[in-house]
Amino acid sequence: YMGPGAAAPAEEQCYTGPAPTAKMKVFHWEKLKSGTDVKPGKGSMWDSARKVKVDSLDMLQFEEMFSMKEVKKEEAPKKVVVKKVELLDSKTQQNLGIMLHKMAPPDKIEAALLALDDSVLTRDDLEGMLQQVPTADDKKRFQEKQKEKPMEEYTAAERYVLICISLPEFEKRISAWLFSLDFAYVIGNVLKPIQRLQAGVEAVRECRSLGVVLEVLRNFGNMMNHGGTKGNAAGFGYATLTKLEACKDKTGKVSLLQHLVRVLAQAYPDTLDLPEELHPIVEGNVAALTYDDIDRGIADAGNALRTFQAKVKKVSEAMAASTVEAHKDDPFNPRMTAFYEAATKQHEEASEKFVQLKKQFEALLKWWSVPARMLRDPKPEAFFADSVVPFIDAFERDANLLIQERNKQRRKKGSSEGHSQLKALAAQGGEGGGDAMSAVVNAIKDL
C-alpha cells in the first residue's frame, strides 16, 4: 500500500535493445504494464520469456524492414500561365455565340453567303446576322489582336467576325439578299388593299338586292318630300344611307330604317340577304382602306427597290475589286439583277392596278349618278367607311331583330294554339275514352 503523497515506483525498463534511427511503423497491440499487469518473479509466462536476449536479434535488419517508407517530396511542376488572347469583348463573344449555336458552322456560313444558298442560311438566319453585325470598334479590336492568336484557336464567334471583315460589303450583301427574299411579302402588302377595295366595288355593282332597297327608299323619300323642293327625286346620294336611323315616325319609336326593313321583309323578303351580298366589304375591312395608304405603300416599295439597287451596285463593285480567288465569279450581281428586273415589273403592275382601281371606283360613283362636281377627287373612305358600311351594319341589325321578333311571335302563337287544342281534346277524353286520351298525350308532346 502507498500512502497519500507517496511517489509511484519507476516503471521497469522492459526493452533494452537499440533505439531505431528511422521512423518506425506503429504496431497496434494491447500493452501490458510491468508491475501492474505483469509482476516480475511471480512465475508468469513473461518471466520465462525474458531468457531471450535482445542482443541475439538482428535489430538493424528489423529496423530496415519495419521502418516507415521514405517518401521523397517531388517539387510540383511550375504552372506555365499562358495568356489567353481574346479577339472580341465578352459581350460580343456571348451574343455571337448564342446566334451561331443555332446556325451552320462558320465555314459553311461563308460558303452559303458566297453562293446565296438559302438552304443553309434561312431568312431568320439572315435577319439575325443583320442584327448582330460587328461594330467598327469590334472590327478594330479584332484586327489589332488578330496576329496574336493562331487561326486554329479561333472561337466560332471569332471565325464569324473574320468572315464579316473579309467579305466585301458584308452587311449590304446580307441586307440585299434578305430584301430579295422578303419582296413577295412587301408587294403583297401593296396589292392586298387594292384587291380588297376592288372586291368592295364589285360587291356593290353586283348586289341584286341593293337596287330594290334603294328604290323602295326613294319612294318613301319622295312621299315625305312631296310638293317640296326635295321631292320628285330621281335618286339620292349615298350619304343619305346614314340618315335613316335618325328619321323617326311621329311616335318617335320607329325609325325609317326599321320601317324599310319591315316593308322589305313583307314585300321583298330576298332583299334581307343584302348584308350577305355585301359581305366582301365587311370581310375585307374596306372601311379602313384609303387611297393615301395605298399610294404610300407603292411609294415605299419603290424607294426600297432603289435602295436595294444601290446596295447591289456597291457589293458588285467591291467583289470585282477583290483579289480573293473565292470572290471571282460571284453569283450575287446576276442573281440580284434578275430579281430587280422582276421586282420592278411587279411594282409597275401594282401601280397600274391602283390606277385601274381608281377608274373602277369612279365608274361605281357614276353608276350611282354621283354629280360630276363630286368626282374631281373621289375618296373610297367617304363612300365605304362613312356611308355604306354603317348602313350595312344597321340594316343587318334591324333585320335580325325583326326575325327574332317574328320567331318569338310564332312560338307564342303556336303555344297558344296548342293549349286550345289540348283543352278540346281533354273535353273529348271524358267522352271518347282511350283514343281521345292518346290524342291528348300526343298534343302535350307537341307543345
Summarize the structure in words:
- This protein is mostly helical and 447 residues long.
- 61% of the residues lie in helices and 0% in strands.
- Helix 8 runs parallel beside helix 14 and helix 10 (256-267) crosses helix 15.
- The radius of gyration is 52 Å and the shape is elongated.
- The protein starts with 44 loop residues before the first helix and ends with a helix.
- The model has no long low-confidence stretch (mean pLDDT 87).
Structural class: mainly alpha
* Element pattern in H and E: HHHHHHHHHHHHHHHH
Mean pLDDT: 87
Radius of gyration: 52 Å
Helix content: 55-70%
N- and C-termini, Cα separation: 125 Å
Instruction: List unreliable stretches of 5+ residues.
Output: none
Shape: elongated
Major sheet characteristics = none
**Count of alpha/pi helices:** 16
Q: Strand content of the residues, in percent?
A: under 5%
Question: Helices, strands, pairings?
Answer:
Blueprint: H1 45-49, H2 59-66, H3 90-101, H4 106-115, H5 123-131, H6 136-145, H7 156-166, H8 170-206, H9 208-224, H10 256-267, H11 274-277, H12 279-283, H13 291-321, H14 332-367, H15 380-432, H16 434-446
